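Title: Comparing notes on inverse folding

I've been comparing how different people in this forum approach sequence design from structure. To keep things fair, I'm posting one structure and asking everyone to reply with a full sequence. Here's the target:
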């Protein structure tokens, strides 16, 4: 990475909760500003200041004092970092060159599930689906007008893809006595690059 690269992140957020009978509602928001400045003698200087407003909303319904259903919605964004923008060198299957024109990745997530909270047993089961836009991926590129460098293919990162990540998460904890308990987790995750029709890395 170029010497003297700088990155900063500033966020302002709020979260509000409202209880109405058996329902609990939560609404939150965050405004994010990211600033990255890179000074590179070979590839030139660049400065980006992406910003975004993201939301989260959730609803919880108490079926019984020990049983509840919940539904969550999230939006998100990930600004490109110093590695995404300025990395120059070899990686698993080629040589990567800097990519100064990147935009933030953005996501939209829905989640629904069930929670059990009893005296000796607690459990959680949820399903979720997250959609990603402007996904940063590596594509074939050139360095000094050539598709290879030191005998390796040249790649650069670009906002080229849409993707989906979805799955199921579950957990359980059982207390036998104050000094002994058992817990377990089971997770299934599936990710697909929808643009290329292939699994995500």
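Reply #1:
Here's my take.
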């Amino acid at each position: 990475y170029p010497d003297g690269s700088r990155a900063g992140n500033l966020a302002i957020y709020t979260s509000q909760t409202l209880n109405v009978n058996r329902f609990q509602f939560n609404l939150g928001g965050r405004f994010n500003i990211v600033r990255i400045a890179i000074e590179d003698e070979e590839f030139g200087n660049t400065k980006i200041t992406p910003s975004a407003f993201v939301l989260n909303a959730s609803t919880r319904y108490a079926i019984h004092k020990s049983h509840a259903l919940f539904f969550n919605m999230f939006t998100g964004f990930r600004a490109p970092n110093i590695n995404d923008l300025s990395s120059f060198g070899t990686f698993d299957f080629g040589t990567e060159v800097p990519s100064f024109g990147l935009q933030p990745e953005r996501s939209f997530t829905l989640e629904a599930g069930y929670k059990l909270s009893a005296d000796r047993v607690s459990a959680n089961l949820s399903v979720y689906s997250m959609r990603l836009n402007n996904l940063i991926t590596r594509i074939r590129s050139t360095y000094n007008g050539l598709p290879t460098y030191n005998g390796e293919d040249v790649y650069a990162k670009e906002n080229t893809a849409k993707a989906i990540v979805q799955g199921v998460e579950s957990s359980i904890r059982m207390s036998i006595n104050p000094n002994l308990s058992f817990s377990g987790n089971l997770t299934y995750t599936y990710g697909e690059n929808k643009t290329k029709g292939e699994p995500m890395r």
